[in-house]
C-alpha cells in the first residue's frame, strides 16, 4: 500500500530496500556514497526519498570519515573520558556551549581546525589546564607572592614547605634552594 508524498501529494510513496546510492555535495570527496542493505521510502511520481534515521546515520558516518573529522559519538567519548560535562569541555576548548552541543549531537559539523582542537584535547588534556593558568590575568602576581612566601623567614623555618615532595631537605640543601628561590624571585620582579 502506498502513502502520500509530502512533496507532490500523490499516493505513490513506497518502501524500497537494497543498495542506496547518494551523490554528496562537492565539498565531500570520494564520489558516490553507497550504503548496502538499506531501507527507505521513495515517491514513484516525483522521486522524493524519505530516509529513516538509521540510513541518515550511515550516510553521516561516511561523510565524517571522508572529511577526516571526528563523528559526534567520538566527540562525546572524548568528553566522557575526560570526565567533563558539555559546559566544562566547551570552556576548555574556548568555544560556546551551544556550538559544542551541536557538534556532539550531530546537528552541526565542526571544521578541521575545531576537530584538531578536540583531538589535541583528547591527547593532552593537561596542556589545556596549563593554558588556562597562563591566561590568568593575576598569574604574575600569584607567582611573585608564591616566591616571596617561599623566600620569607616564615617559610625558611618550615623545611617541609621548601621540600615540597618526598623527604625533607638537609639544612645545606635548604639554604641552596632558598638562595636560588631568592634569586629567581628577584628576576621575576624585574620581568
CATH architecture of the largest domain: Roll
**Biggest β-sheet description:** 4 strands, antiparallel
Structural class: alpha+beta
Q: Return residue spans where pLDDT drops below 50 for at least 5 consecutive residues.
A: none
- Looking at the structure, what is the overall shape? rod-shaped
Number of strands: 4
With helices defined by DSSP (H or I, 4 residues minimum), what is the helix count?
10
Instruction: Tell me the β content.
Output: 5-15%
Query: What is the average per-residue confidence, as pLDDT, rounded to a whole number?
Result: 86
The Cα radius of gyration reads 29 Å
Q: Specify the helix fraction band.
A: 55-70%
Number of structural domains: 3
CATH topology of the largest domain: Ubiquitin-like (UB roll)
Major sheet: order of its strands? 1-2-3-4
Helix and strand element order: EEEEHHHHHHHHHH
Query: What's the CATH C level of the largest domain?
Result: Alpha Beta
**Amino- and carboxy-terminal Cα gap:** 80 Å
Short summary:
The protein has helices at residues 53-67, 72-82, 86-93, 97-105, 112-123, 125-135, 139-151, 153-156, 159-163, 171-190, and strands at residues 3-4, 11-22, 33-43, 49-50.
Walk me through this protein's architecture.
The chain is α+β, with helices and mostly antiparallel strands and 191 residues long. The chain has three domains: 3-67, Roll (Ubiquitin-like (UB roll)); 72-133, lambda repressor-like DNA-binding domains (434 Repressor (Amino-terminal Domain), Orthogonal Bundle), CATH 1.10.260.40; 137-190. 57% of the residues lie in helices and 14% in strands. The protein is built from ten helices and four strands, in the order ββββαααααααααα. The chain has helices spanning 53-67, 72-82, 86-93, 97-105, 112-123, 125-135, 139-151, 153-156, 159-163, 171-190; strands at residues 3-4, 11-22, 33-43, 49-50. The protein has a four-stranded antiparallel beta sheet with strand order 1-2-3-4. β3 and β4 (49-50) form a beta hairpin. The protein is rod-shaped, with a radius of gyration of 29 Å. It starts with a strand and ends with a helix. The mean pLDDT is 86.
Amino acid at each position: 500500500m502506498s502513502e502520500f508524498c509530502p512533496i507532490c501529494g500523490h499516493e505513490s510513496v513506497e518502501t524500497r530496500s537494497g543498495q542506496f546510492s547518494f551523490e554528496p555535495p562537492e565539498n565531500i570527496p570520494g564520489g558516490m556514497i553507497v550504503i548496502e542493505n538499506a531501507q527507505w521510502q521513495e515517491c514513484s511520481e516525483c522521486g522524493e526519498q524519505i530516509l529513516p534515521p538509521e540510513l541518515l546515520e550511515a550516510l553521516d558516518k561516511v561523510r565524517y570519515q571522508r572529511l577526516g573529522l571526528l563523528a559526534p559519538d567520538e566527540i562525546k567519548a572524548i568528553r566522557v573520558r575526560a570526565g567533563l560535562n558539555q559546559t566544562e569541555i566547551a570552556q576548555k576548548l574556548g568555544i560556546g556551549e551551544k556550538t559544542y552541543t551541536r557538534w556532539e549531537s550531530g546537528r552541526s559539523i565542526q571544521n578541521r581546525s575545531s576537530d584538531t582542537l578536540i583531538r589535541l584535547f583528547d591527547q593532552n588534556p593537561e596542556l589545556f589546564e596549563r593554558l588556562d593558568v597562563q591566561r590568568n590575568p593575576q598569574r604574575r602576581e600569584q607567582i611573585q607572592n608564591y616566591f616571596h612566601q617561599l623566600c620569607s623567614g616564615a617559610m625558611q623555618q618550615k623545611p617541609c614547605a621548601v621540600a615540597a615532595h618526598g623527604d625533607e631537605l638537609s639544612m645545606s640543601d635548604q639554604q641552596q634552594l632558598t638562595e636560588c628561590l631568592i634569586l629567581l624571585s628577584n628576576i621575576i620582579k624585574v620581568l
